[in-house]
Amino acid sequence: MRKIGYVRVSSVDQNPSRQLKQLEEIGVDILFQEKVSGASQDRPELKRMMSELQSEDTIYVTDLTRITRSTRDLFELVDEIKDKGANLKSIKDTWLDLSEDNPYSQFLMTVMGGVNQLERDLIRMRQREGIELAKKEGKYKGRVKKYHKDHAGMKHALGLYEKGDMTVKQICEITSISPASFYRKLKEYKRDAEKQI
What we know:
Blueprint: E1 3-9, H1 17-26, E2 30-35, H2 44-52, E3 58-61, H3 71-83, E4 87-90, H4 104-136, H5 152-163, H6 168-175, H7 179-196
Parallel strand pairs: 1-2, 1-3, 3-4
């Protein structure tokens, strides 16, 4: 039976010291730590921790946002932890306890999942209503194109292409523009050039 601590900060300039201090006070045996966005699916230390998790281990986090990206992600993680006969505890979210002597956790997780889903649905509904209103008032312009006609990097890329002494791969490496974006813009560029003939 081990106490395992998991610490995550979203970026390299964020300081994990608060999380580390709280977990040290509990007295964890092993600590997994990473600097990666919660939205990212690539969380190598979390994967390593889960692969090394043993029966009767308990994972400790300062709060659930450190270990999960979404409610769905939390449910999947909880299922995996329970399948291994382990436990998950959060310092902030004291209601969460996967042990059998705490029957309220699953109920509260289900309620929380429903509330989070409702919140997401309401946000999407408000966004749609806002867009519809903006369209009626003639204020909605849609998503701003990343590579607009005055984009310096794309202008440079098209200029290099016109010279004809470089491959598309070389041009994209120099200008840091993806080949897909360049080919798309090149198609527009050629179409506009044909119209002017």
